[in-house]
Amino acid sequence: MAVVTGASRGVGRGVALVLGECGATVYVTGRSEHVEEAAGEVRRRGGQGIAVRTDHRDDAQVEALFARVRGEQPGLDLLVANAWGGYEGDYQQAFSAPFWEQPLERWTAMVDGGLRAHFTAARQAAPLLIERGSGLIVCTGGWDDPDFYLGNLVYDVVKTATSRLVRDMAHELRSLGVAAIGVYPGFTRTESVAAAFAAEGKEPPPETHSPEFVGRAISCVLADPELMKLSGTGMQAAELAERYGFSDVDGRRIAPFRLPDELRL
Prior knowledge:
The chain has 265 residues and is α/β, with parallel strands linked by helices. It has helices at residues 10-21, 34-44, 59-72, 105-132, 153-173, 191-199, 211-223, 227-230, 237-244; strands at 2-4, 25-30, 48-53, 78-81, 136-139, 179-184, 234-236. It has one domain (2-263): Rossmann fold (3-Layer(aba) Sandwich), CATH 3.40.50. The protein is built from 9 helices and 7 strands, in the order E-H-E-H-E-H-E-H-E-H-E-H-H-H-E-H. The N and C termini lie far apart (41 Å).
């Protein structure tokens, strides 16, 4: 049984669909009406999709979500903390500007709508996992190489802090039998990315991967008999594809996404 936050579109939706293909019960959360559509697709793929409209910036709504899970299910096996509000508004405007020229609301959008949303979901999920003495928390919002600058100070701080959140949760949960792992997308062919390239009359570049590719990575990690040895680590989905031998939905092998050397710190 799984909860996938921010699953109405993009990476979260791709993860929920793959879990549905595995026959899982998946609570599909998000702010928009698209959660209903995503949950229906989970059901069509063989799982049990349950849509719950949730704004993960609202602590009361997050608490209500997990209270519902507790009341309706015998337990929880997996939380995928994926909600991301960091691209609110015209996020491309001045995205690469120096920090002193960044709008202050970008901090709120990325920290509260990303890092804090991961934390509050994990905080509510942890007791359910601890009660079973097993299970997994996955955060998708981190990055695998802290030696590179990600082009925007706030964005970089949130990605780095999310990776640290994974390590610290793993440290506190390890003796209780629960794992915490970062599974990080590379260059993902989400709806918005595909639309942006289409607007320029282009196809997404070949290094992009589908949202479901991240779901395949998470499903393999969850099934790994040595899951606890991975706890506290963070890897790109492509690195996990190399470990477990899976490909993208179109059969392609995806290489890990690497930033150019000029962004090395």
